[in-house]
Amino acid sequence: MRVTKTAMRLFLLTALTMAAFAANSVLNRAAVGSFGMDAITFGAIRLTSGALALALLIVWQRRGFALGGWGRGVAVLGLLAYIFGFSLAYRGLESGLGALILFGVVQITMFGGAVLAREEMPMARWLGAGLALGGLIWLLAPGASDTGGAAVALMPAVAMAAAGVGWGVYSLQGRQERDATQATAMNFMLAAPIALMGALWMSDSAALSMGGVTLAVISGVLTSGMGYALWYAILPALGASRAAVAQLTVPVIAMAGGMLFLAEPLTWRFVGAAALVIGGVLVSMRRA
């Protein structure tokens, strides 16, 4: 099968975007785990710093600011649901199970959007999605020894499911944006004040450390602000279903990042599951 320059460029940009998403997870875990930062405070600083950086970029590029109608409201609500649902869920969910719920719901939401939009869905897309999701379940699903037979906490699971729907809706809306950078900037600028008020209300701790704030700003400016702008830029070419499957690589990349930067152990289970996820994604990326 011949690979065109356009297809290769799309593949590389998608890989870069997934690496940015995974970096957000690593930065979040480091800020909360190593610096004791509250997850909601991290999310609020992440959104605010991203909003400021993107606003400066928009001014410098003279793109102008535009609300964008009802679609902007949908995107902002989706972004807030993702940020706060994710933060609240990890107060009561083990990280692997949380990621499994999140990306499982993202798959359902975005595949549903693709079906409703009558997007082309070749059999390879379904097969690849099944392989990749199977690999993710193998990698992340807790065993009996992990859970000790305890039931999964309902409200954290619901919060993570809401985060998955929010991110799926945010991504689906991105397919309709003509200016990815401007759209991302407006989403962040409108969501940031609400996130700050939410952090003041829901945050467990007002304690801030320089290390935690630094990681939140890096996450906000680079891996969220610029990463989400790149995501909006490539979504029209990817389509909803391929974009959904591609995101199944994020937990795998995040775990690899944890092994590199947080001294987490490498296991054969990770190697096998990662091969299955990446293989499924490559199968799904075929157009026919």
From TrEMBL:
Residues 158-284 form the EamA domain. The chain crosses the membrane at residues 39-60, 72-90, 96-117, 124-144, 150-172, 184-202, 208-231, 243-262, 268-285. GO terms for cellular component: membrane. It is a multi-pass membrane protein. Its main location: membrane. Residues 1-22 form the signal peptide. InterPro entries: AA-Vitamin_Transporters, EamA_dom, EmrE-like. Pfam families: EamA (PF00892). It is found in: Membrane. This is Carboxylate/amino acid/amine transporter. It comes from Shimia marina. The lineage of its organism: Bacteria, Pseudomonadati, Pseudomonadota, Alphaproteobacteria, Rhodobacterales.
